[in-house]
Specification:
The chain is an alpha+beta fold. It has seven helices and four strands, in the order βααβααβααβα. Strands 2-3-1-4 form a four-stranded antiparallel β-sheet. The structure holds guanosine-5'-diphosphate.
Length: about 140
């Protein structure tokens, strides 16, 4: 079940920049089915827990501050080969290196404020989806 699902967040810069609709449109037209979705403003504690794996990285503090700076749209997405295909759709972490036409190339402001999150493995997709959504919130 988890192998065809991934987890995403439209990050604060993209929500603030009024790109939520355009990004969802790209995601849906790329063939992803929305299994769960919500708009929420996460606390720095929740952002810190979500990015726990990056705790030792130099940008961790800034990342936590940024991710709790405004509302995000969190979603679980379903598609064949979801994790890999979604990473391709969003492009490289640094928008300057993201392939043309990818969501980050189109909408990201910087390596930090890079418009969207996409799980990097099936295992993390499940952990991240479970972090944000109960079973009752999935269709
Ligand atoms: P991702 O899997 O492409 O999201 O990239 P990573 O897992 O490496 O990093 C997680 C998030 O941390 C990224 O999406 C960025 O928002 C942020 N980030 C990554 N690298 C840097 C960096 O060098 N500086 C800053 N300020 N933020 C970064």
């Amino acid at each position: 079940m988890t192998t065809n699902r991934t987890f995403t967040m439209i990050k604060p810069d993209a929500v603030e920049g009024k790109h939520t609709g355009a990004i969802l449109d790209i995601i849906i037209k790329a063939g992803f089915r929305i299994v769960a979705m919500k708009l929420l403003h996460i606390s720095s504690e929740k952002a810190g827990a979500f990015y726990e794996v990056h705790k030792e990285r130099p940008f961790y503090k800034d990342l936590v501050k940024y991710m709790s700076s405004g509302p995000v749209v969190a979603a679980i997405l379903e598609k064949e080969n979801a994790v890999e295909d979604f990473r391709k759709l969003i492009g490289a972490t640094d928008p300057a290196k993201a392939a043309p036409g990818t969501i980050r190339a189109l909408f990201a402001k910087s390596i930090e404020a890079n418009a969207v999150h996409g799980s990097d493995s099936n295992e993390n997709a499940k952990i991240e989806g479970d972090f944000y959504f109960s079973m009752l919130e999935r269709v």
